[in-house]
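Regression report. Comparing outputs from two consecutive submissions.

Submission 1:
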Amino acid sequence: MSVWDELVGQKEAIAVFRAAAESGLAVSPGRVQAGVDTVGKAASMNDASMTHSWLVTGPPGSGRSNLAYAFAAALLCRNGGCGDCPDCKQVAARTHPDLATLTTEAVIIKIEDVRELVRGSQFSPAVSRYRVIVIEDADRMAERTSNVLLKALEEPPERTVWILCAPSEADLIPTIRSRVRSVRLRVPSIPDVAELIMARDGVTNEVAERAARHAQSHIGMAHRLATNPEAHTRRDETLRLALGLSGVRDAVLAAARMIEIATDDAKALTDERDASELESTRRSMGVATGDAVPAQLRSHIKNLEDHQKRRATRSLRDGLDRILVDLLSLYRDILRLQLGVETSLINEELEAGLRAAATARTAADTLATMEAIGVARTRIDSNVSPVLAIEALMIRAARKEAA
């Protein structure tokens, strides 16, 4: 099974990367920049040239990083990405000596991490034809950090390939956009995602289809909804809270409960991992469980705790954003019913409540609520208090004009 087989709904993008990998492996590494005339432009299926820097864009859950690592495997594998050789397995485990990765569990990527990556990019490959560097969530780089990366993209070593991942080209500064070749991904279809979830997780077709539909084709979220009953229950409660709003008091209580749900969800994802990391760090320092950490080693524990706090902040923000995306799907369904489009409901299990809400408000009011959801997402991303942002949204959602 090749590295491309588990990528769903991206035939055009896969064709571009496969052709580029085959082109890059067929020529001498010194010619890796032969495709420089395509840098900064969207890739087409007819363009099989290889170049030194790539940008993979697409909505959350479209498989940006999966495609980036598949491309990395195809470049580092002697068989072009067979999926079975040691090279491919090392790329999958992120342990290949010629693969460098940068991802963050915090809100932003630190400039020190990018500087370290740029320094490493100057070394020649150890065992393969290329050194491949993947930056996930490249949109989380501040402008100052992006400028550090820009210098590496302007004068890259001949055998180094950069692969950046971001939701859209607009999330990166113009000077970086002009130096990368962009490949845009599309949202995979619900049947494609459901088929993948069934194959990976061994769930029934009904569970996989529901998870894919509720996740709106977000592959990672579909996996979680299909395999984690608590995640499914939290989502259902969130939507029922929104459908049950009848006044300001309900709105404030619903906002508080949504914050609580997002916090519980974030803790479920981070608490066990935090404890495991702390125990592993103490073990590596030779400190037994329950013993006091020596003064000279406390800075290591403090650095780990700071990292975990940053990860918890991002996890909470991601959880809140997921709630807002789910709410957007709810009001999208209401609007479709108001406009007489009764097919393809995302939340068809709540159809009775959706119809009642569609009757109780106007389409204009529903659109205003959907706009308020977008405002709330922007506010939270801009460090506005999540409590205030969600409360303002719920109060707006509770206001309805009779249809």
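Submission 2:
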Amino acid sequence: MTEQDFTFEEQVNGLIEQISAYIEHYHGGSVELDRIEGRTVFVRLGGACEDCPLSPATLQGWVAGTLRQFFPDIVVEETTSC
């Protein structure tokens, strides 16, 4: 299988799962895909990332930074829990 065999959503979700595995292993946090609207990706931070003062850096540095390496035109937003 090649990259073209997967949809945009599948590719994004796979990357987020890999990022989350790293964050879970080393920091006790998590990130999960909530939804995709156009080129905007909404994610939910969990575990140790919840209420962490460094979560904006995690969101923009780790999550958005990694996803933009593959999809430069996407926007990453955090979904807030209600």
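Expected: both submissions complete independently.
Actual: both completed, but the second showed a warning that disappeared on reload.
Relevant detail on submission 2: Residues 3-78 form a domain with the GMP Synthetase; Chain A, domain 3 fold (CATH 3.30.300.130).
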